[in-house]
C-alpha cells in the first residue's frame, strides 16, 4: 500500500515513517509544505533504515503531490494545521483515499496540559467537516509518544485507538497499524468517540511531567 | 489508618474495601445511606476475606457515621450523588479528614459512552465546591474496573491517577493506593487536571465494547 505521511518531517510523522519502513514493505511518501525539506528528510530516513539493514525507497514531496500518489494519507500535522492541510490537498483526494488524523489540540497552563476541545467536538470532527464528503476519515496514532516511536532501538508495547464511521476504511487502518511491531490497534467505535481519545494525549504529558523516571509515555489497555 | 468507603456496598467501593482488607491492615468502614445494608455488606466482606485466611473487622454505618470516624473518606458514589453525599456528611468533616473522589459523569448514546463534563469543569471540581473549604480533596481510583478490583482471584496490573491541590493529602492517598498489590498510583498534578482523568473511564468502556476478548479494562502508562 502507498502511505503518504504529511508532516512526515517531524514529531509523530517521523516515527510512523521509520516504523513502517522497518517493519513493513509499504511504499512511504514523506509530505511537507516544503518539498526540499521533505526530500532531505526522506533521504535521512532511508539512511537510518539502511544502517539497520533495511533497504527502502522513501520519497519526499510537497504535501499535495504526496497525497495525490497515496492510498492512505496521514495528517501528521499540528491540530491548528489540520484544516489548512486538508484544503491544500483536497483536489487530490477521492473516495479511494483514506484520510487519517492523529492530531490533538492542547493548551497549557500552570497546572499542565489540557485537551483543547474544538467547537466541532474534536479535532477529528473538524477534519471531517473540512474534507470532501466522499473521502473516508479514520482517527489513529493520537497517544503514541513521538520520541519512542522514532527510536528504532526501543521495543514498543503500546496500544493505539482507532475510530471512524467508515468500517472498511477503519479496518484498513487497523491492519496498517498492526503491521508495526509492538503497537496494538484497538477499535473504539465511531467519530463521535474521538474526544475521549484525543484527551488522553495531554494526560500522558501530565503524568510524565509529574512522575520521575517516566517519559515518552504511551498507554496499554488491560 | 481509618478509611470510610461511602457507597461501599457496590461497584468500585466493594473492590476498594476487599483489596484494602486483603492487602493492608487499615481499619475499614463501609458507608451507605441505609445503615442496615452497610452492616450486611460489611459482614459479607468479612466472610469473603475470612474464607481467604484474612481476619478483619469491617464495620457498616450510615454514611455520616462512617465519615465521622474516618481519617480518609472515599466518595464511591455515582457522580450525581457526589454533592448530596458531601452535604449529608459535611458536619463530620474537618481539616484532618481527606475526601477522595473516584466519581465520573458519563452519558451514553448510540456510539457509546461519553464523558459528561459538569459545568464546574469536572466531577472533582463539583465536589471541591460542595465541601467545606478546609477539607482537602484528592481524586483517585477513576479508571479501575469494578469487577476486576472486587475479584480477589484476579492479579492486578493497573495504574490509577491521583490528583489534588493539597500535596500532603495527595501523598497520603498515594501511599494508601500503593498498599494495594498491583495498583500503581501516578501523580497527575492538581485539581485542574481532573477532566482528562475522568474522561478515561468512558473510553475504557468503549474499548471493551468494541473489542472481543477485552473486558474489565484498566490502564497502564508505559
From TrEMBL, chains A, B:
Coiled coil: none
Keyword list, A-Z: Oxidoreductase
Record GO biological process: copper ion import; NADPH regeneration
A GO term from the CC aspect: plasma membrane
Record-linked InterPro entries: NAD(P)-bd_dom_sf (IPR036291), NpdG (IPR010185), P5C_Rdtase_cat_N (IPR028939), STEAP_metalloreductase (IPR051267)
Domain Pyrroline-5-carboxylate reductase catalytic N-terminal: 2-104
GO molecular function, one term: cupric reductase (NADH) activity
Keyword Flavoprotein appears in the UniProt entry: no
SUPFAM superfamilies (alphabetical): NAD(P)-binding Rossmann-fold domains
The protein's name: NADPH-dependent F420 reductase
Species annotation: Natronomonas salsuginis
Taxonomic lineage: Archaea, Methanobacteriati, Methanobacteriota, Stenosarchaea group, Halobacteria
Amino acid at each position: 500500500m502507498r502511505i503518504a505521511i504529511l508532516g512526515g518531517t517531524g514529531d509523530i510523522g517521523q516515527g510512523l515513517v521509520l516504523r513502517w519502513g522497518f517493519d513493513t514493505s509499504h511504499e512511504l511518501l514523506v509530505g511537507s509544505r516544503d518539498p526540499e525539506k521533505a526530500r532531505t528528510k526522506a533521504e535521512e530516513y532511508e539512511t537510518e533504515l539502511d544502517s539497520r539493514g533495511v533497504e527502502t525507497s522513501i520519497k519526499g514531496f510537497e504535501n499535495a503531490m504526496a497525497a495525490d500518489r497515496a492510498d492512505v494519507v496521514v495528517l501528521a500535522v499540528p491540530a491548528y494545521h489540520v484544516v489548512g492541510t486538508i484544503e491544500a490537498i483536497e483536489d487530490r483526494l477521492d473516495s479511494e483515499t483514506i484520510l487519517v488524523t492523529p492530531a490533538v489540540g492542547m493548551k497549557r497552563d500552570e497546572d499542565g496540559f489540557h485537551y483543547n476541545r474544538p467547537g466541532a467536538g474534536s479535532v477529528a470532527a473538524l477534519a471531517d467537516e473540512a474534507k470532501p464528503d466522499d473521502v473516508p476519515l479514520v482517527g489513529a496514532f493520537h497517544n503514541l509518544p513521538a520520541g519512542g516511536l522514532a527510536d528504532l532501538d526501543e521495543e514498543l508495547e503500546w496500544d493505539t485507538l482507532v475510530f471512524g464511521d467508515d468500517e472498511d476504511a477503519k479496518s484498513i487502518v487497523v491492519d496498517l497499524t498492526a503491521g508495526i511491531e509492538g503497537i496494538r490497534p484497538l477499535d473504539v467505535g465511531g467519530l463521535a468517540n474521538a474526544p475521549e481519545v484525543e484527551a488522553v494525549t495531554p494526560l500522558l504529558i501530565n503524568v510524565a511531567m509529574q512522575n520521575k523516571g517516566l517519559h515518552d509515555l504511551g498507554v496499554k489497555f488491560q
